[in-house]
Amino acid sequence: MGENKRRLLAGKWYLPDDAELDADNQRRFALCAAYNANDGTSHAERAKILTELLGSVGKGVHVRPPFFCDYGSHITIGDGTFINFNAVFLDSAPITIGAAAQIGPNVQLLTPTHELDTERRRAGWEKAEPVTIGDNVWLGGGVIVCPGVTIGENTVVGAGSVVTKDLPAGVLAVGNPARVIRHL
Questions:
Q1: Measured on CA atoms in the order 132, 134, 135, 141, is the torsion positive or negative?
Q2: What is the CATH number of domain 3-183?
Q3: Distance separating alpha carbons of residues 97 and 111, to the nearest angstrom
Q4: Burial 108-131 (b: 16+ CB within 10 A, else e)
Q5: Which residues pair with 89 in a beta bridge?
Q6: How high is the pLDDT of residue 41?
Q7: 139: nearest Cα among 86, 94, 93, 91
Q8: pLDDT of 16 above 90
Q9: 3-state secondary structure of 52
Q10: pLDDT higher than 90, residue 57
Q11: Please, is 66 exposed, middle or buried when counting C-beta atoms within 10 Å of its C-beta (0-12, 13-18, 19+)?
Q12: C-alpha dist (Å) from residue 52 to 48, 79, 82, 173
């Protein structure tokens, strides 16, 4: 494993334009294309592709295509989770989704962040922070979860919300930025 990939996995600043990371992206690209193909691919065939693409897939997981990710290998999905159409999971850092989660259409789970310094940003430096979604969380359609965020179990996030900070277990949060409006 090269130094740049070690830096990525350690959550340190790295350059994504790297031959080793590009090889990982080519693998992901081919598997996502096969998964998303509208060519009569059976549910069993898609499940096999998903198992090869992602780091870990629990029993009874259903991901509706199209599905998009950076690497795939940094994503863990718990048993019985449902992910709707057009999910975008940028997994430069780990994305962990618990059991029985419900992920609405067009949800984005984003781990990468970029430099504020203009020269380093122009040079392409980025790093990533993990995203964790607890058991039985429901993310409404179009929710965006930002780098480093943890959402506690049994929490509901309303459609179109942007989650910039951790949310505790058992709450309803809405808005941009998402704010807790009540306990469940």
A1: negative
A2: 2.160.10.10
A3: 13
A4: bbbbbbeeeeeeeeeeeebbbbbb
A5: 69, 109
A6: 78
A7: 86
A8: no
A9: helix
A10: yes
A11: middle
A12: 6, 16, 18, 34
Active site residues: 114
Amino acid at 53: L
Closest CA to 7 of 80, 92, 76: 92
- In 3D space, the residue among 76, 73, 71 whose CA is nearest the CA of residue 56 turns out to be 76
**Residue ranges of domains in the chain:** 3-183
Phi/psi at 50 (nearest 5 deg)?
Answer: -60, -40
Burial of 176 (0-12, 13-18, 19+ CB in 10 A): exposed
> 0.85 cut: is pTM over it?
yes
Counting Cα atoms < 13 Å in the Cβ hemisphere of 163 gives 34
Which residue has 């999971």 as its token pair? Answer: 89
Please, which pLDDT band fits residue 173 given cuts at 50, 70 and 90?
very high
